[in-house]
Amino acid sequence: MAALGFSEQLLFSPNPNAKPLSPRTLSLRPCPCSSHHDPLLAKDKDKDKDKEKERSTRRAVRIAWEKLLRWSRSWRSRNNSPDILQRTSKVAVLGAGSFGTAMAAHLASKNPQLEVSLLLRDHHLCQSINATHINTKYFPAHNLPPNILATTSAKDALAAADFCFHALPVQFSSSFLESISQHVDPKLPFISLSKGLELNTLRMMSQVIPKALRNPRQPFVVLSGPSFAVEFMDKLPTAMVVASKDKKLARAVQQLLASPHLRISTSSDVTGVEIAGALKNVLAIAAGIVEGMELGNNCMAALVAQGCSEIRWLATKMGAKATTLSGLSGSGDIMLTCFVNLSRNRTVGLRLGAGEKLENILSSTSQVAEGVSTAGAVIALAQKYHVKMPVLTAVARIIDNELTPKKAVLELMSLPQVEEV
Questions:
Q1: What is the pLDDT of residue 371?
Q2: Order of strands across the sheet with 190-192?
Q3: Residue 139 carries which DSSP code?
């Protein structure tokens, strides 16, 4: 028994000078192999810890969201300047194509008291819009707000206008603006919705409009971003950017356009927004060619990534900010135009890739694919700014009938394997 008591003492008390433990004390001490090492209890504890961690994460997310909403309310209260719509009585929209009509409808529905004058050339369509409030050519299933007045008179459209939205094809803009310049107030802000470059001069719309109006100080804003006209017309959530050297004017146009279904960001990088908006149309043709040739998703991703790099190289050489190219007017617009079938430029490329001739494609559609004209300017710009642009140059050569889509792909794939930049 003494030996047994000694072994118990050694087992529970490593100190040889410690007093022997009584049987009662021994019975009250936790066994080393009890709950601490019980796998079922340990598993329950782990579950409790996981649940607490999940609750903490959710709590942190909820707090972050509430902070965002408080910041939003605070920002609005600090920047609550007089609503520009209250000081705007008339807006002119030049061009009753798909996006011009959608913009007119957006402005008119936002403020029923606003007079929206829609300028177009087609007398019959003009009369039809005024009689039925429907643009039968572009939106036969949509009713236009009654405060849109269509006209073929530039004088009437521009008289007493507070803002003018330019929605005409780029290649026709100079001649048209020159013909109406006598009716344009030199202080009338022009908001360009047109994406592209003037083929012969390589000018952007920020250069075309003041030059054609013979007024280098004509207030100018460019509006761009991922926005299909039909979705904009349907009031689906959309985000775009307005860019102007005049920050006050950019904020005014932001107020004029912003609505529950349209977010507008501002920028001072006019060059970046315009170049991205113009060249993404050329890249969309390339994406369509890949789709038409059924070259697969790997090829599509590689091509669009390369095209994005080429646009960035050129735009930054022209003075644009690299951050602009990753924003709404850059990556946002590129993704929409390259990957969605509603894109006119992508459709042109798809049909080219399937073997159709360009003249047949263009003659079968009433809408303008700006990328076809802009592609010709790409080569000249690449040479001017010493930038290698293999994908966009290949599109230009295909359009000029100097290269077949199949041969273009073979030549692009045969380029040297180089370091990514």
A1: 86
A2: 148-151, 115-119, 90-94, 163-166, 190-192, 220-224, 238-243, 262-267
A3: B
Q: Check 67, 211, 248, 280 and give the catalytic one.
A: 280
Residue 40: strand, helix, or coil: helix
At 237-280, the pLDDT tens digits run: 999 999 999 999 999 999 999 999 999 999 999 999 999 999 99
Q: Note the pLDDT tens digit of each residue in 353-364.
A: 999 999 999 888
For residue 18, pLDDT over 70 is answered with no
The class that CATH gives domain 273-413 is mainly alpha
The answer to whether residue 73 scores a pLDDT higher than 70 is: yes
Q: Where are the domains of the chain?
A: 84-268, 273-413
Q: Closest Cα to residue 340, out of 230, 233, 234?
A: 230
The reply to whether 280 belongs to the active site is yes
Q: Mean pLDDT throughout 312-325? A: 96
Whether the Cβ atoms of residue 232 and residue 106 lie closer than 8 Å to each other: yes
In angstroms, the CA 333 to CA 30 distance is: 68
Nearest to 198 by CA among 382, 374, 389: 374
> Is the pLDDT at 11 greater than 80, yes or no?
no
d(CA 21, CA 4): 12
What average pLDDT does the chain have? Answer: 89
CATH topology of domain 84-268: Rossmann fold (3.40.50)
Cross-strand partners of 324: none
Q: Indicate the helix (H) or strand (E) that contains 64.
A: helix 39-78
SS3 175: helix
Distance CA 411, CA 417 (A): 13
